[in-house]
Amino acid sequence: MENKKSYTEMMKASAMTRKRNGEKNVMEIYVDMLLNEIILTSQKTKLLEDIDAALDHRDESLFLKLTEELKEINIRYGS
């Protein structure tokens, strides 16, 4: 005998496949958002440390450059 599926069985299988793919896409989006947040946080932390060092060394030009970079990041991605 041939193994034929009914229309209902095929639709259920198709729906389950779409659901699994949808869950995968949501997980990929979540992971991407999490990685972007980690990268952004580390960039901001590094900038803040460099700003502190510029202040300690009384390097006004470096301080101004770094604070502008920090402002741009805050404008682009929010605080």
From TrEMBL:
Superkingdom of the source species: Bacteria
Transmembrane segments: none
Pfam hit, one: IDEAL
Residues in IDEAL domain copies: 34-70
Protein name: IDEAL domain-containing protein
Organism: [Bacillus] enclensis
